[in-house]
Design goal:
Blueprint lengths: L1 H109 L23 H9 L7 H7 L13
Helix pairs in contact: 2-3
Length: about 170
């Protein structure tokens, strides 16, 4: 029986030793898990800071993009406004030019010294509307003896007092 007690006692001691070892291993494992959890929380906090920084950068870039888009929209609107203004001014310029051209055609048609067609357009392109030697030729036409001279008519056209200085086209 003594032996049996010693065997039971040895088994109990062995079970206690195994229990203590298991308990320590579990505590070590829990401590290791706690440390690993703490490390993960630290890394998550660092990542959280990085996430906030990246969010701030993304928001800043987005704001810049919105500002650039607004600037581009403003410039497009300004360009459209300028195009409309340019078209309006071109219309006014064309109208003014038409009025001026009409006045010049009427003046040329009325001026006996300027050769024009039926619509009042000049035959000459110089600034006064006549060639330098036209005055002499017109003066010769006024002289009845020069009216029958073909060389004068050839340079001046059918211009004489009877048709008010206009050439029939």
């Amino acid at each position: 029986m003594d032996r049996m007690i010693w065997i039971i006692l040895a088994i109990l001691v062995l079970l206690v030793i195994i229990g203590v070892v298991m308990s320590r291993l579990r505590k070590q494992r829990e401590a290791s898990q706690r440390a690993e959890a703490a490390e993960l929380r630290t890394q998550a906090a660092e990542h959280d800071r990085e996430v906030r920084e990246r969010e701030a950068e993304a928001d800043a870039v987005d704001a810049q993009a919105r500002k650039a888009r607004a600037d581009a929209d403003e410039q497009a609107a300004n360009a459209k406004r300028l195009e409309v203004e340019a078209e309006r001014r071109e219309e006014h310029r064309a109208e003014a030019q038409e009025v001026r051209d009409g006045q010049l055609r009427r003046a040329d048609a009325l001026d006996p010294d300027v050769r024009t067609d039926r619509e009042g357009r000049r035959f000459d392109d110089d600034r006064q509307g006549r060639r330098p030697d036209d005055d002499q030729k017109v003066a010769r036409l006024d002289d009845e003896s020069a009216q029958d001279d073909p060389s004068v008519r050839e340079h001046v056209g059918d211009q004489h007092p009877a048709n008010d200085g206009r050439v029939d086209a």
